[in-house]
Amino acid sequence: MLVKNSRRFRYSVLCVALSSLFLSGCDNSSSHTELTDDTLPVKTAPFGWTAQYKDVDGTAAATTGGEGARAESIYVVSSRQELKDALSNVRSPNYLAGDATAELTAKLEPKIIYWVGTIRGDDLGNGTYADATYYKTKPNKTTFDFDLYVKAFDKDYLAQLQATIDAGGAEATTAQTELTLLKKQNGQRSQYANNQKAQIQFQVPPNTTILDVGQDARLEEGYLSINTLSHTFNKTDNSNIIIRNITFQAPRDFAPAWDAGDGASGNWNARYDAVSINASKNVWIDHCTFTDGEHPDSKEQVLFGKHIQRHDGLLDIEDGADYLTISYNVFEEHDKTTIIGSGDSDEGEYRITFEGNLWSNLTQRAPRVRFGQVHLVNNYHRGATDADYPILYSIGMGFASSILSEGNVFNFQGAGAEESTIIGAYKGSKFKDNGSWFNGAQAKNLNQIAIEKCTALQEEEKAAAESANKAPGNWALETCTNDIDWEPPYTYAVGKSIAAVEKYVLENAGAGKLSISLPD
Question: Locate the Pectate lyase domain: which residues (predicted)?
Fold first, then answer.
């Protein structure tokens, strides 16, 4: 559905364009505002690190999303195909199907997408939905079968098949066929996963605003991929993307991988996030809800001693993504929530602000940070050690990270829930907290806990290196410190009390809290 008159689109609710020039601006001065009372001001336009972006030539560039979209590039969508078409901007006068240059031109133009109701990534457009069987053949045929994939890890069974083959006879040929098929399962799993990805992925181009209309916009069995530095989008540095007021139910991976070497007892690893941000800059994710929803991993079958994990991250940030603000979102009922940096070699600036978010009933990664200058301010964390998603830690100090935590509230229940539960040590050495709270009291020991956990991990690595007659990693020689070498280059306020921060978050975080109407 196309809005016919773009002049009438200048509605008051979507203040991301004009108000961003006034409320967030491109003010590079740092200012920690002292509140006159307990009330924290709610931001209605891009702020934090996303408002500090500069183009490659050094020119400040506001986060405006699809501001300035022509009438043809304003969409209302309620199905998978309509969303795909809107993201491709097929109604642009410059769009010509099959002409790569014309298609790219249209995708890079400003576009505004209103989202109505539930959209499913597995929707086949004919009243049916893709399932685990469908991905075995579409779009490319595979011989992958999850039961066979699992059986391929049974060494005794493989040895039995080999013995049958070696013995010869009538059963040898059948055994050889099965053994060959089992050995191909891991490779076929990759093709199967690519089939699922082709169906459920929605690639978000630069200069795009996506908004829920009402309170029921949802994405199920699909995910948004934000990667504008790819060739698909002409390696565009300035993504300029705004996503607000959407509920994302993380998609299930029907071909998760078992890694026996992941951790002390192995782990299942899934592929798809609810939203992934890769190598993109100048992105604002605001007032959204992220969850496993109807498909918690705790209900999955237990194999190799672990529940099969169908979900990866809720919102993962990788490949040097930069100048991001993640605000007023709900992250709930999930394990591996938000990772920043995919590995210890995934170096990047990762300047990211997390403000006003609710992190509820999560096992870990709220967030886990590698590299980066990450500002966590006025967020509310709650969970328990004995829940379906038992809390392991909240903030992960990852490799080369530099984390500033301010005015965050942590409320953890259950056996072993202590202030130290807040911090996970993963080769990070720089963490500073100002004025956060744990279980109703000031978190007075948080800075010392961070240093102690960092130091303990360093000592473990040094001892392991000495035992192996090797040099320890350079990170193990760093000074564990509460001194960080940066400060937020923007104006912000820190909550003065637990009640103020909880009220601020609970009243504002999550989808359905904004009042956005369709344009006339």
Answer: 148-419
